[in-house]
Records
---
Amino acid sequence: MSRASKITLAGTSLGAVTLVYLVHYGQQAEKAAMHAGVVRDMEQQRVKKERQADFEMQRELEGEYKKVQTVQDGEGGGGKAGAGG
């Protein structure tokens, strides 16, 4: 084999190996990014469920307080709230 053909073979082989490595690296990076997206979505769903549970608890407390207390609009004033004298 001539020297030029050996250099061509080595260059082509090196290029092919490099290309395979870069494609593999790109696939791994894409897989990691997709997994991070799934983890982020699961965290967002967990936070949403917690917020919904807090909202429901606040709604129940509001209902209990409305049963016990009388709530006024504040149109009549009456001086009950904030009359410090």
Note: The mean pLDDT is 88.
---
Amino acid sequence: MATVHLSTIEPPTITAGKYQPFPFLDLPPEIRNSIYTLLLTHNTPICARYSHVLSCPFPVGLNLHPAILGVSRQLHKEAAPILYGQNRFQAHPTWLTDVTFALDPAQPITSARCVAQMRRFHLRVRVDCDPYYGPEALVKAFSGMDEFEVEVFRASYGIGDHHILEAFKGIRGVKKARVHGSVEREFASWLEKCMESEGVTLEECGNEIREVLGYSGNRNTYDMWTLGNR
């Protein structure tokens, strides 16, 4: 069998004017946006590394093609809001939106310009220990988002209460809020309603949740700091 050396293979001859670039920017904006959506969005489900600790999701590969943003300034201007605005990002369990990532915590997104375009967030919240953030930080980070998902968990069954989650009731204007996990459905529905509302005051929210859960401020829950976490 004869051996063919790569050095002897000549590249094909391209006749001038035969190959013209595709006039992508001449397409209607609706078609271009559909193409951007196919290239820059994903529906990869979020899978927590461990269900009982505050850890990041498993890093997985995302079938995204962000290189199109580097073609030209106009394409970057058109496509960046789709990449950052239509995908769901993970908010850091401590620093919230100051350190975000898609599904790989080893590749965080720290650019303020990119974070400002993000409209969908997922946050894991542990209710059996005090958080590092307060109500003001939550309001600043998540009010007005298109989508905000709060995944609630605890290290052991029966430990913790709604005290941590009540800090979220000041968030307003979320188009689609979802609260799930280790939390009562009545409380989750109330918190979702608070975050999706526009003009409900904190006092009204506080009075309503007392009616929903039937308590007047004295929680008869397990005190892990006094009795331990077992």
Note: The radius of gyration is 24 Å.
